[in-house]
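Researcher: Quick one. two chains, 743 residues in total.
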Amino acid sequence: MTALTQTQVADPRPRRRRAGRATPWFFLAPFLLAFIAFFIAPVCYAIYLSLFIKKRSGIGPARDVFGGLANYVRAFQDTDFLQSVGHILLFGVIQIPLMLVLAVALALVLDAAKGSASRFFRTAFYLPYTVPSVIAGLLWGYLYSKNLSPFNQITGAKTDFLSSQIILFSIGNIVTWTWTGYNMITLYAALQNVPSDIYEAARIDGANNWQLTRFVKLPLLRPTLLLTTIFSIIGTMQIFSEPFVLRPLGYVPDNITPNTYLYLTVARDGNFGYGAALAVLLALFTLLLSGFFLRYAATGGES
Amino acid sequence: MKKAAMFVTLALGLSALSSAYAADPAFPKVDASKKVTLEVWSWVPGLDKTVAAFTKAYPNISVKIVNLGGGPNTYTKLQTALKAGSGAPDVAQIEYGFLPAFADTGGLVDLSKYGANDYKKYFVPWTWGQVSPEGKAVYAIPQDTGPFAMVYRQDILKKYGVAVPKTWAQYAAAAATVNKKSNGQVKLGNFYSTFAPWFMALAWADGGQFFKRDGDGWIQTLNNPAAKRVLNYWYGLVKKGDVGTVNAFSADYWNAAGAGKIASNFEAAWGPGGYAGSLKDKSAGLWRAADLPQWTAGSTVKSGNWGGSSNVVTTQSKNPKEATLFALWLNLSSSAISANWINGGLFPASAEGLKLPVLHDTTKNPSKFFGSQDISSVYARASQGVNVNFQWAPWFPFANDNFNKQIDLMLKGKLTPDQALDAWQAETLADARKEGYTVK
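Model:
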């Protein structure tokens, strides 16, 4: 029986396969070419670059020589780099939950509310996301300046929002301002997709508004929340433009985020090899962190 | 309106041309039959107008100007293009402090090959030291300069009965008086805590030497005696509240300066143009310029330099000879110097250029903004008093940023000025060595 079917089917198959084999590749080719050229190749080049160390005699041109893993060893001994990772972890631990709780709350409120007011606020909360981060940085930079800041003028305080102690929080504020509305829209869209019979069933069971939110809406938001968290983790690891725009306005440490430090290593110190090594490490770290979170979220769901 | 302005510019350019044309040095000869296109990266406004005169004199050379806005943008792009091996322009503009870092990439042509050393005599002496530190290889042609002088509000000084300080002791006394009489509302001056070159220019005026080539390596002394003296002096003023710490070029600063809350400052020669541009509606005509205060009262004015730039030729240029000619012409021909001053406020590095009538025209900004005072004469005097031997190191960009870190700690009271400079020296030294430099 099995032998029979095998021989019967085996005959026409290879021909069909051969004809079919090329077709998907043909259609995939434009994407694959672009993918290789703009993604795989730069990654490979970065890894290749990261194996070279800068040699300078002091006078005359510098040379890049093969250094194996020397740049990676240096990265793990570089307190500035390790501190920058520490900064971003601290930042993420505070900012991501704060922003997502806010986004969930806003999404729930907008989902409950009806009419034109809801539509207006939906747009209003989303609006900051449409402002490019460089512009947002400039805008907030002005609001943060010690003597001109409206906060200081109203309260009469002399808070320096750009001082190195609170700059991380000032950046967190800009990021939250920019991204809360964006996450809110994603969560709101997920709520809109919930079939109304689920709500009706809950109502028939006698659930009040709070119970409906707590036991129906929030659990249904879970997958979307997982997605927004992953995006937020990746986004946080990449924070660059906000601190970079604020740099000329006051003292912002070189290593406020890993990306500013990486940028300065390349653009200021001209050390492409070390910068590439930092970039590779940062990518691995981001991958690890999001993977870790996904795993944690998955097991958390099962138990 | 625009046309009228252009006509005036043109007429001025022409008059400068006719009156000072004889002063132009003979430029290197190039093959006039060879068609050449040069790409030039520069942040000087209106450079295309300047270049029109060049292409008239050299019809076979066409010049393409690219303005990347200057500062980090230009440097990052140039750094990347030099690393990539293609995409760099023929000629680029680089500030003196950042020149060694680019020379270090090996991407700059040694212009002595094309006879640049013959033109040394036409430049203000200290500027040549900036582009040719060992006196052999020439990495760039000096373009503009930023010698230091004092700008001040004449009305405010008069209001508080303070004379223009001639020494730093007088300046400290005046700062205390202004602070006291105004109940802390007005500060005589301001400490730019995030601009190392501003601080270094003050120490430069006092003979401070931060970097020095030594055989096959370098000597770094960021904590030199002049630096310590200058920083301790300013820290004392800041601590007493006699001067502010408003960030340079910030909205805060212009607001305070326009509102009369900051009565003076130390600015490079390119600074007054910024005052005229940023404060045109407030306090116009009330500002004046004076010589930098001195540590000891004397007849010769000693000054330092902040900023200023040069033109390099990159090794990617297919026409380095023509590019060198252009760089020389741009900074030595009186028509180009005049246009660069009018359009971009570039204070020339050429010795003859300092005497050009257009610089001293008091009916035009920035002199007009400064109550029709001939401020260029003040700055020309400052330029003559800049120490010739001052050098920068290739890792200066790192030192530049690390300075901000140490000064931030100092202003928070965590480091004394001496400790801040020692930490600046130690951390920068460690980084320079990590980057592979031989440095003591």
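Confidence is low (pLDDT under 50) at residues 1-22 of chain B.
Researcher: Thanks, that's what I needed.
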